[in-house]
Amino acid sequence: MSQDRTSVLSPQSSVLGRLSAVTLQEIDADPAWARAFANQRKDHRYYRIVEETLHQGFEHRYFLLENSDGQRAVQPFFLLDQDVFAGAAPWVQNAAAKVRRIIPRFMKLRTLMVGCAAGEGRLDASDESRAAWIGNLLAENLHAQSKKLRAAMVVMKEFHYETRAALNCLVDAGFTRVPSLPMTRLDINFATFDDYMAKSLSKATRKDLRRKFRAAADAKDPITLQITSEIGDCVEEFYPLYMAVYNRSNLHFEKLTPEFMVRLGREMPDKVKYFLWRQGGRPVAMSLVMVNGDTLYDEYLGLDYAVALDLHLYFHTLRDIIQWGMENGYKWYVSSALNYEPKLHLKGRLEPLDLYVSHTSAIINFFLKIFLPWLEPTRAEKTLKKFPNFADLWGEP
Q1: By C-alpha distance, which of 184, 218, 219 is closest to 387?
Q2: What is the C-alpha separation between 333 and 188, in angstroms, rounded?
Q3: Domains in the chain: how many in total?
Q4: Contact, 33 vs 76, CB < 8 A?
Q5: 158, 201, 259, 278: which is deepest, by most CB within 10 A?
Q6: Is the dihedral of CA 342, 354, 127, 336 positive or negative?
Q7: Are residues 179 and 259 in the same domain?
C-alpha cells in the first residue's frame, strides 16, 4: 500500500474525539509529535530512527488523536504480514509448517500492529486520564481503521502492564489480552555489585558467579570495556556480534541494522550507551543500553561465541553494566525478554507485557478468543513459572 493511500484515509470522529492515520512526513512538523513519549526512553526520535533504518516489510504509520478540548496525542502503528504461530510452542509451529506445504499463507495475516516495531508498546500519556482517553479512542476506532487498511487482524503489541487499566476497554471491544514474553526488573540500589551479591543472592549463586568471573579474569589477554554513545567508527566490528546472538535465537521480530545503531547513539546520546568489550583488541561482546530516570534498560546483546561460553561473557557484561549503573545513581536494571534462567537466580522479577489481539471477522474472532491462550508465547518458556510473580502475567500485579 502506498503512503498516499494511507494518508488520505478519512478521519473518524466521535464524542471522544477524532482519530486519523498519517505518515511521518505529515506529522513531522506537528508539535504533538515533538512532545510524543517525552517521559519515555523511546521518544519520538526513536520511532523516526526505527522507521528509517529497519526495513523488514513494515509499513510505518501514526494515529493522530484529537479532542474538542485541544488534547492531541500520537500512537505509532505499522502494517505487516504476521505469522499467528510465531510465538507458539515448537510442536504448534511444526504442525503449521506441514499445513503450509499445501497452503503457503496459512494463518499469515495482514496485521495492523499498534506499538513499537523495536521494543515494548507505550501510550503517549503522562497521566491516567490521558491514557484512558487514548485507550477508549483506540478501542472505538481500531477495527474500522483496520478494515480501511485491508488488515484482517489488529494487535496492540507488547504494551507495558501499567497500561492495563487504560486498555481494559479493548477487551470490551472484542480484543483478547494474552501475555507476551516479559522483561525482567532487578533492584540495583546498592553501593557495589559485591554488596548486591552479599545482600540479595544465595551462597550457591554467589559462589557460581565468582567462578564465572574468574574465568575472564584469569584469561591470558585481559578484557577491557569502553562505554560510548558514538559507535560509528567501530560498528562494523561489533555488529557481527549482535547478529551472532540474533541468529541463535528461535524467536525473531525486529532485526537491527548498522545504520540503526549508529543513528541511535548520535541522535539520542542522552538516552543511549554502548558497552563494548574487547580482548587483546578484538571485539568479544557488546550491549546496547538505554537509560531513563533511575532505570537502565539492557536492550540488545552481542557476543563472540568463539570465547563467550568459556569466559562466561554474558555474566561478565551483566556485572559491568550493573556496576556502572550503581556508580551513576541508577536504582533499577531492566532487561529484555528471553534467557530467563540466570535472571531468576539473580532475583529479577517479571515485568509483564501484554498483547491485545482481535480479528475483523466476528466469527474468526470468536475462535481466536478460544485458541489464543494456547498459542501465546509464554507457554513455551517453562522457567517463567518459577518466578514468584508469574501470576502477574495474567492477573493484576
Answers
A1: 184
A2: 6
A3: 2
A4: no
A5: 158
A6: positive
A7: no
Q: What would the grid cell of residue 93 be?
A: 509451529
| Same-domain status, 73 and 157 | yes
User: What whole-number distance in Å separates Cα of residue 138 and Cα of residue 77?
Assistant: 12
Phi, psi of 370 (to 5 degrees): -75, -45
CB distance 54 to 118 below 8 Å = yes
DSSP reduced 3-state for 171: helix
Helix (H/G/I), strand (E/B), else coil: 266: helix
Q: Please report, for the domain that includes residue 322, its CATH number.
A: 3.40.630.30
3-state secondary structure 344-372: HHCCCEEEEEEEEEEECCHHHHHHHHHHH
- Please spell the DSSP secondary structure of 91-150, one letter per residue: HHHHHHHHHHTTSTTTTEEEEEEES-TTS-B--S-SSHHHHHHHHHHHHHHHHHHHHHTT
Q: Contact at 8 Å (CB) between 59 and 4? A: no
- CA 157-105-117 angle, 5° bins: 25
DSSP 377: G
pLDDT tens series, the chain, 397 aa: 334 433 445 566 677 899 999 999 999 999 999 999 999 999 999 999 999 999 888 999 999 999 988 899 999 999 998 666 565 556 556 665 665 566 555 566 889 999 999 999 999 998 999 999 999 999 999 999 999 999 999 999 999 999 999 999 999 999 999 999 999 999 999 999 999 999 999 999 999 999 999 998 998 899 999 999 999 999 999 999 999 999 998 777 899 999 999 999 999 999 999 999 999 999 999 999 999 999 999 999 999 999 999 999 999 999 999 999 999 999 999 999 989 999 999 999 999 999 999 999 999 999 999 999 888 889 889 999 999 999 999 987 6
CA distance 81 to 108: 6
Domain extent, residue 261, equals 189-330
Pairing status of strand 223-228 against strand 176-187: unpaired
The neighbouring-strand residues paired with 156 are 114, 356
Q: Are 355 and 157 in contact (CB under 8 A)?
A: yes
Closest C-alpha among 138, 126, 123, 128 to residue 17: 138
| Residue 204 within any structural domain of the chain | yes
One domain for residues 96 and 139: yes
Indicate the residue among 298, 330, 362 that finishes a domain.
Answer: 330
Q: From residue 98, how far is each of 82, 263, 364, 374, 379 by CA, in Å?
A: 18, 41, 22, 19, 21
Q: How far is CA 130 from CA 21, 116, 145, 292, in A?
A: 19, 19, 21, 21
